[in-house]
Amino acid sequence: SGSGTVTATPESQDVEYLAPISIGGQSIVMDFDSGSSDLWVFSTQLSATAQKGHTNFDTTKSTTFKTMTGAAFSISYGDGSGAAGTVGTDTVNIGGATVTNQAIEVATAVSSSFVSDTNSNGLVGLAFSKLNTVSPTQQKTFFDNAMSTLSQPVFTADLRKGAVGSYEFGNIDSTKFNGSLSWAAVNTTTGFWQFSNSKFSVGTGATTATDGTQAIADTGTTLMLASSAIVSAYYSQVSGAANDASAGGITFPCTATLPDLNVDVGGNYMALVRGDDINYAPVDSTGTTCFGGLQATTNDPQIWGDIMFKSQFVAFNGGNNSIGMAPHQ
Ligand SMILES: N#Cc1c(N)n[nH]c1N1CCCC1
């Protein structure tokens, strides 16, 4: 109902951005992910080992939780991580925006990377509901459920490099970006917030066309995974950049000057990704070699994650299936 805003806090090295939600009155810090569509949470039904260090949702302590008999979920992510469990409904409140019958996916098993990341206690999936994994009856995302009662059918991501930002539902705060938003059509067939990317330029260089590539806006991915055309053109302008097998991707001297990257979004907006944001982090404590925030993927669509969000304020419009961007204020 109305609107709601929560603070988005980066984990160390901006690996992911976490925000608090309330489930049946229990406050739980979650990873907000515009690249998936399940709301699942650590629970007291997990093994004691898995629960250790986490906030674990306890269905027995919620007076509003209702079991969804016979329902189950099982989700696996591109990085090999995953979770599975049972399903119920409860009241979810995110910064004031409330859904009373939200499907809550109660984890009974989670993969090791989730267990070890004790800052995060589950995910809030914000992609389209067609990707939700609940069976036998697919469930809707929080945003899908909230849309009809939000002041506007939108949510926004204001993510910052090494600093707190915000997620907002139902309102677009124009004090958070420069100028006006540029809107692009979203292709909803894949279930992602997917748009066309037809060209790019590096620094002040010439614009290069890309043949019909697409990209998704994915807050649940740390880096910006782009086509090899973009990535090779970009790093050709960075002296000392090279693929570094031991680091698992392209690295460069931490002293390198990184140009800005301009990427087309939907054919009518060149989104600037700051070179400074593409210097992701040193690969080790010596601070000599740095890991690129821009890495190559053969995946189509490309997966534009948090590195892009650090330069661009992003609005997701579920009313007309469009995505809006503008440089942060
Ligand atoms: N891999 C991956 C991935 C993605 N593309 N969006 N969100 C992801 N995860 C959320 C929690 C773990 C991975």
Structure description:
With 329 residues, this protein is mainly β. Helix content is 9%, strand content 45%. A hairpin with a 5-residue loop joins strand 5 and strand 6. It binds 3-amino-5-(pyrrolidin-1-yl)-1H-pyrazole-4-carbonitrile.
Globular, elongated, flat, extended or rod-shaped: what is the shape?
globular
Query: What distance separates the N and C termini?
Result: 27 Å
Mean pLDDT score? 97
How big a fraction of the residues is strand?
A: over 45%
Judged by helices, strands and strand pairing, the structural class is mainly beta
What are the low-pLDDT stretches, counting only 5+ consecutive residues below 50? none
Number of distinct beta strands: 24
Radius of gyration from the alpha-carbon trace, in angstroms: 20 Å
Share in helix: under 10%
Q: Give the ligands present.
A: 3-amino-5-(pyrrolidin-1-yl)-1H-pyrazole-4-carbonitrile
How do the strands and helices of this protein lay out in sequence?
Elements: E1 4-10, E2 17-23, E3 26-33, E4 39-41, H1 48-51, E5 66-76, E6 82-94, E7 97-110, H2 112-116, E8 122-125, H3 142-146, E9 154-160, E10 163-169, E11 182-185, E12 194-202, E13 208-217, E14 224-226, H4 228-235, E15 242-244, E16 249-253, E17 261-264, E18 270-273, H5 275-278, E19 279-282, E20 289-292, E21 294-296, E22 302-304, H6 306-309, E23 312-317, E24 322-327
Parallel strand pairs: 3-8, 4-7, 13-22, 14-21
Antiparallel strand pairs: 1-2, 1-10, 2-3, 2-6, 4-8, 5-6, 6-7, 9-10, 9-23, 11-24, 12-13, 12-17, 14-22, 15-16, 16-20, 17-18, 19-20, 23-24
This protein binds 3-amino-5-(pyrrolidin-1-yl)-1H-pyrazole-4-carbonitrile.
